[in-house]
Amino acid sequence: MPDLSDPAERRLALLLAQERPLAVDRRRLAALGDRLEREFRRHAPRPWWRRHAAPLAAAALVPLLALPAWLLWPRPLPCPSALLIASVATVTAPAGRPADPGRTLLPGETVAVRGGRAELRWQDGSSLALEDGAELRLDDAGDGSKRVALVRGRLRAEVAPQPAGRPLRLAAAQGEVRVLGTRFAVECDPDALRVAVEQGRVEVQRAGDAAAVAVAAGEVARLAPGAPPQARALVESPLRNPGFEQPLGRDDAGDWCLDVRNGDARARLDEAAPHRGRQSLLLEQFRPLVFPPDAFAWPSWQEFVNSPHGGRGHASVSQHFPVQPGRSYAVRFHWRSQGLRREDQRPGPERGFVHFDAQLYFNRDHGGNRVQAITLLHAGDDAGEWTAWPPAGGANRGLFRVPEGANRGALSFKLSVARPDCTPRVWIDEVTCEAVADAP
Fold first, then answer.
1. N or C: which end of the chain has fewer CB within 10 A?
2. Is 18 contained in some domain?
């Protein structure tokens, strides 16, 4: 209510009393109020969730839209795990940790067998039996197939039928073996990979140039540098006791025969660090030869090496076996040595030699006339580690054709010593002599 004691207020009241009241349109006034309220709301600050509603909705839709693509996108299948079964073996997993029998071998793990055997087995019944000295790694192929890498050694495989397009793949430095279901044996050395198939069929592919060959039951293939992969008929070796795992016998029984020409030389079986198996053959001069003091000044070389006062040490083993004229045989063996010396004929303290010889003979009848003699190896330098013969890239690849008129073969390994003050030793292991169907 206005304060009429104030002159300004009284004057304003008189002026208002003189004016006529204005007519008001209520509908227009309500519409104006609604418009003012809408403008106020439009220009008023909005909550954060309304300001970012569109980005939040898009972010929520991304997982929903990506879910079908993720479900349909091809993903690698898990690698089938293998159960490790060991018997009389020391099996070593990564970082040198021992692997207990019955454990599951996972991709990336390595098994090294020492002093026994081990076996890997999958749920479908496929198995790999590793021999002593073998080393194998389980790999992940990414497609659900079985993939293993054989670093070294020998194994026997029995593979159940595999899914189409996903064969078992066994890789080595020399190449790869692809298997859909079969029984076969693999031997991996630093210079070659040998695959012998007992049942079924495998494909062997060489590393580097991808040259491949199919190997059927009863055939063998060998991958090595300088020789194209080729499948040959697998024939049982005519040699007995080729790995020297059994005691040495007699020549008349078709076994390894000892020949020692000097009481201070010998041939025996040795269990220390064989190439494979439990033992190897050792040829050794275990006591130094004795020469007369003036023998080193003798001008005659022949008189020196054949001196009756000590002379030449000689230890050898040999085995006779039947052969077929016109057929070819593949010969292989491993050897290592210490104490070999090249021949020095000059007078002086260094004269003499220590040699290791490997020879192949073809004879007419047992112990009869010799038709052909072949020197496989004549070594005057040491092989400190196990070495394969024939060497990688050799000209004849260890293949020899039996000449006409010969029906007996013989392999001989000999250590010859004509040097004082030395006790050399030569180890031999894994001797094979196999007939091949298609000789070059």
1. N
2. no
In a domain, 421, yes or no: yes
pLDDT of residue 337: 95
**Residue range(s) defining the domain that contains residue 142:** 82-233
Residues 131 and 228 in one domain: yes
Q: Are 207 and 220 in contact (CB under 8 A)?
A: no
3-state helix, strand, coil in the chain (%, to 5): 15, 45, 40
Q: What is the pLDDT of residue 93?
A: 58
Pairing of strands 90-92, 182-188: unpaired
- What's the rounded Cα separation, in Å, for the pair 22 and 30? 17
Q: Which value, to the nearest 10 degrees, does the dihedral of the CA atoms of residues 295, 296, 300, 302 take? A: 70
What's the pLDDT tens digit per position in 70-118?
555 544 445 566 777 765 555 665 555 565 666 677 777 888 877 667 8
Look at residues 176, 202, 233 and tell me which one is the last residue of a structural domain. 233
Are 200 and 321 within one domain? no
Residues 209 and 330 in one domain: no
Residue 350 in any domain: the answer is yes
What's the farthest any 2 CA atoms get from each other in the chain?
Answer: 167
Per-residue model confidence as pLDDT tens digits over 369-390: 888 999 999 999 999 899 889 8
Q: CA 343, CA 352: separation in Å to the nearest integer? A: 6
Mean pLDDT of 237-242: 83
How much is the pLDDT for 395?
A: 56
Q: Looking at the structure, tell me whether residues 385 and 273 fall in a common domain.
A: yes
pTM of this structure = 0.58
* Residue 340: exposure state from Cβ atoms within 10 A (0-12, 13-18, ≥19): buried
Exposed / middle / buried, residue 30 (Cβ in 10 Å: 0-12, 13-18, 19+):
exposed
Peptide bond into 390 cis (omega under 30): yes
pLDDT greater than 50 at residue 432: yes
Q: Which pLDDT belongs to residue 179?
A: 87
d(CA 65, CA 246): 71
> What is the domain-level CATH number for residue 102?
2.60.120.1440
Tell me the pLDDT tens digit for each residue of 5-18.
Answer: 677 777 777 776 66
In this structure, the answer to whether residues 194 and 280 fall within a common structural domain is no
Asked if residue 9 is part of any domain, the answer here is: no
Dig out the tokens for 303 from the structure: 């008189």
Residues 256 and 207 in one domain: no
Q: Are residues 102 and 202 in the same domain?
A: yes
Number of domains in the chain: 2
pLDDT the model gives residue 269 = 92
Beta bridge partners of 267: 283
Take residue 280 and report the two structure tokens written for it: 């190897």
